[in-house]
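// run 5 | inverse folding | seed 20
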């Protein structure tokens, strides 16, 4: 009898223990939402590289958010090459990851590889930049920033500022001469930031006050921004009134070139750029730049939340933009301590 009772007790204890274990797994899957069909979610993520302060913040946001969400992130750095991104996506498909996310370095050339992901039943999320594909069903969602609006905001801010400050063209003429440092050739951000700026200019009653003197890629890097600005200064010297840089890093490089040429950045040449990184806030505090239009890199949490929803079979918005602001130099000192990147 004693033996039977001991056996019954042992069986009961095993059942309780198994129940606790099951509860733990359950908590992991529904509580963190990081599992798909009972197993941990694996996301393959192809980043374009580390060309700017902004990109570093974007990568950190994605890695941190994956960790917080309990998602296993397979991270791949494409070193600025589309072919490396295509290879990475193909390797994610071969591994059978649950979901793929990527930042497209350029807008076109993705149809074939995205079709391969679709055929393998792996959903794809486009992050930060846009893709141009013949069939929009090749990706489930796009999370990022609105580059056209960023470009429009740049022109609107400049136009208001030049009027308010009563700035006179440096060459004594009737137009402000603008030079533009563009981002990576073929990238949606470079194309749309130009488009937004030019559309806003064309629609403005002040359009005739502006002349785009030169526009060239600085590849979103500080070094190239400096080199291209040096060549602008050699060709146009004292004629330049305004520098519009598609990102803060190129503007920071250009500031060095302007100083080396014996001019005062932010005074002789009015400078506006896009991103809102801490380095640019510091430059504005020092009076070397005039405004930054924010492009928010903190896209990780939204990406992970969207991935979980997709894998849970929930409907998600096809296009989601993150919030962004405009920060002129006069708010830089007050704002810098609150900046997260
Ligand atoms: O795609 C976003 C752009 O890429 C950012 O403006 C720039 O800094 C980055 O490298």
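// decoded
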């Amino acid at each position: 009898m004693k033996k039977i009772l001991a056996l019954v007790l042992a069986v009961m204890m095993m059942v309780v223990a198994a129940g606790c274990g099951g509860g733990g797994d359950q908590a992991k899957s529904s509580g963190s939402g990081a599992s798909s069909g009972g197993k941990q979610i694996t996301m393959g993520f192809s980043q374009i590289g580390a060309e700017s302060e902004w990109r570093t913040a974007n990568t950190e946001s994605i890695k941190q958010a994956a960790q917080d969400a309990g998602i296993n992130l397979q991270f791949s750095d494409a070193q600025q090459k589309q072919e490396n991104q295509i290879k990475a996506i193909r390797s994610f498909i071969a591994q059978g990851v649950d979901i793929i996310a990527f930042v497209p370095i350029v807008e076109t050339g993705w149809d074939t590889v995205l079709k391969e992901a679709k055929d393998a039943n792996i959903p794809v999320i486009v992050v930060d930049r846009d893709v141009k594909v013949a069939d929009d069903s090749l990706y489930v969602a796009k999370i990022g920033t609105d580059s056209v609006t960023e470009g429009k905001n740049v022109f609107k801010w400049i136009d208001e500022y030049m009027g308010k400050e009563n700035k006179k063209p440096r060459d004594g003429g009737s137009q402000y001469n603008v030079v533009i440092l563009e981002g990576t050739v073929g990238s949606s951000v470079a194309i749309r930031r130009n488009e937004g700026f030019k559309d806003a200019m064309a629609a403005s009653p002040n359009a005739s006050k502006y002349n785009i003197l030169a526009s060239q890629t600085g590849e979103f890097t500080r070094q190239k921004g400096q080199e291209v600005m040096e060549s602008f200064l050699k060709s146009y010297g004292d004629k330049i009134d305004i520098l519009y840089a598609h990102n803060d890093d190129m503007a920071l490089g250009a500031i060095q070139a302007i100083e080396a040429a014996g001019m005062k950045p932010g005074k002789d040449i009015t400078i506006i750029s896009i991103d809102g990184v801490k380095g640019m806030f510091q430059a504005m505090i020092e009076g070397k730049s005039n405004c930054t239009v924010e492009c928010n890199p903190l896209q990780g949490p939204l990406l992970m939340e969207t991935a979980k929803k997709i894998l849970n079979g929930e409907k998600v918005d096809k296009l989601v933009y993150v919030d962004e602001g405009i920060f002129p130099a006069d708010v830089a000192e007050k704002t810098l301590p609150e900046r997260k990147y």
